[in-house]
Design brief:
2 domains; 4-stranded mixed beta sheet; Phosphoribosyl-aminoimidazole Synthetase, Chain A, domain 2; 7-stranded mixed beta sheet; alpha+beta; 13 strands; metal-binding (chains A, B); homodimer; 60s Ribosomal Protein L30, Chain: A; PurM-like_N_sf (chains A, B)
Chain lengths: 349, 349
């Protein structure tokens, strides 16, 4: 529905994968001193002589993680990078390099991949990361993107999932649930479009949540802000699968429990109104929605004054002894166990 | 045809990706001092404080790069690692870590992924590399494996594609063409099997070439041998797409030309007899076949004495001035230009 049907189409068949990767990456520059050699040899060469390296990888599959009927390819390229950078920032590290591998069927013309790479290029520019490698190959069906991201940090700055202690405060950046509701809006409009292809949807009331879904931003700024505020998170994770699932990861890795306060969960007004429209419970959406790519972290209580009143951060709970378990304290002051209801690609939607 | 139809089948649907990756990787250990933290956090943490890091990534797609009707899953896992380690060794570096990401449709039971990971585990053990990350997700069709490999080397040891000089000798490890002919044998048997599923093929005359296709070995030993012989390759590349294509990569990157001598190309006797059987020209098979994962490198003429007579190495030509171009000198002493006829996944077979 957002697709331009008049696009120029150059078949990939006669281009070959060497020329394809050359063509797609010719305008990418290396900006980090740690990026010694990028694309063009058997491997990239990197120099991490004075810091630790963090490494993460994620795959996005058409029909599972994205739907090209409403996901513009440029946004998809951007998002594929964000998903991975988010994992680097969740280590409290600075992202420095990425590799991108793509498998595509022949139904995609070269111009489609150029669109995709323009989103990747924008992400590299805005987040200051170097593209240093990758692979392009054909698939028998659809598109698949595999990204690996590397980052650097001083050893003592790295925030693991395992460092939370009882009484640490649980903090989240930004607000939650928007990406999931944006997806609901897009899915609804897709169904409308199937019935009436001439219908032009008015998405303007949903701008914020649709952008959260189509063009998420990884929280590079949070890592920088924590450094500036001199706050070292005791543990950290990014929210890709929903708040409840990420809390359980932190608790399990740190061998602690957690009390999460329902009335503290940060929600954008658009999220609240969309929840009313879709007859969904906003707390459930925040707990299980996923794809917000906010950072969830714990801090020592002594650091509370440093983040207090900061508009980027909300204290949503605190950690407890492991034996106390993980609970949501509702607005009605009842205590219900938190269960993992995050998104699972093997179960589908 | 090599599939056991009586396998136990545990559906992936109800396992979830967190438990899946935990389950599949629980027996993997970290052996390198540079592997500080592996799977289980947002990112792996690596320590490369005294050496340069090399990074490479490759994708294998079912129906494009492999056919599960004759490729056992354990072999596939092993090969997926080899393909990437080969790129690390082609930098004259020591492979240290890998990440594995897999997209699979629900037609694969858990036991299939366990088989795949048993091959990955074997490769990690034999080649001394640590599995430090990855992703598992569902696909709408088939299986796709994306591997990233990291390695380390001292700066002055790294061999790029770009360092060859005129008069350098062109050297190849092992022998060529076997993997391609192994594929021909397997494809032929697959056709026979389609006609008569009870036919049990006798592959014993083809053991060597079938193994070259199904279970290639990356040439870790060559990197170690060159170190021991005190030979620093002036340029190096691995032969994944066929000799001609790799020679052209070296020549182009190094801004040199090349004379390749047909009568020097190392061929196993099984390759020669299979070529007769399939009515193929053995030189063409070596030039264009691909997937042998041997190393192709150049050395200074002064290093010739160090490798002379070594059974692992064959001098197959020498580099020239760029303006002289790239030529094959045939047995009949005619000079024909080398063209890239390596394997191109966008063109199919």
């Amino acid at each position: 529905m957002l697709e331009d049907k008049e696009q120029k189409r150059t078949s990939l068949d006669n281009l070959g994968e060497f020329r394809l990767i050359e063509h797609l990456t010719e305008n990418f520059n290396l900006n980090h001193s740690s990026s010694k050699v990028g694309i063009g040899d058997d491997a990239a060469v990197l120099d991490y002589t004075d810091k630790k390296t963090v490494l993460t990888t994620d795959m996005l599959v058409e029909g599972v993680h994205f739907d090209l009927s409403y996901m513009p390819l440029k946004h998809l390229g951007y998002k594929a990078v964000m998903v991975n950078l988010s994992d680097v920032y969740a280590m409290n590290a600075v992202a420095t390099q990425i590799t991108i591998s793509i498998a595509v069927s022949n139904r995609f013309p070269l111009e489609a991949l150029e669109e995709l790479y323009s989103g990747i290029a924008l992400a590299c520019k805005l987040y200051n990361v170097d593209l240093v490698g990758g692979d392009t190959t054909s698939s028998t069906k659809g598109m698949l993107i595999s990204v690996t991201a590397l980052g650097q940090a001083q050893d003592h700055k790295i925030a693991y999932r395992s460092g939370a202690k009882p009484n640490d405060l649980l903090v989240v950046s930004g607000d939650l649930g928007g990406a999931y509701l944006g997806l609901q809006v897009l899915e609804r409009e897709k169904e409308v479009f199937k019935v009436n292809p001439n219908n032009q949807p008015d998405l303007s009331p949903y701008t914020y949540i649709v952008e959260r879904q189509l063009k998420p931003e990884a929280r590079k700024d949070v890592v920088e802000l924590l450094e500036k505020l001199e706050v070292q998170p005791t543990s950290m994770i990014d929210i890709s699968d929903g708040l409840s699932s990420e809390i359980l990861h932190l608790s399990k890795s740190s061998k602690v429990g957690c009390n999460l306060f329902e009335d503290k969960i940060p929600l954008d007004p658009t999220v609240i109104s969309a929840c009313e429209e879709f007859k969904m419970d906003s707390t459930m959406v925040a707990l299980s929605g996923g794809e917000d790519y906010e950072l969830l972290f714990t801090i020592d209580q002594n650091d509370f004054e440093k983040i207090k009143g900061n508009p980027h951060f909300t204290v949503i709970g605190h950690m407890t002894e492991e034996k106390e378990g993980n609970h949501l304290i509702t607005r009605a002051n009842t205590k219900i166990p938190i269960s993992a209801q995050g998104w699972n690609s093997f179960k589908g939607e």
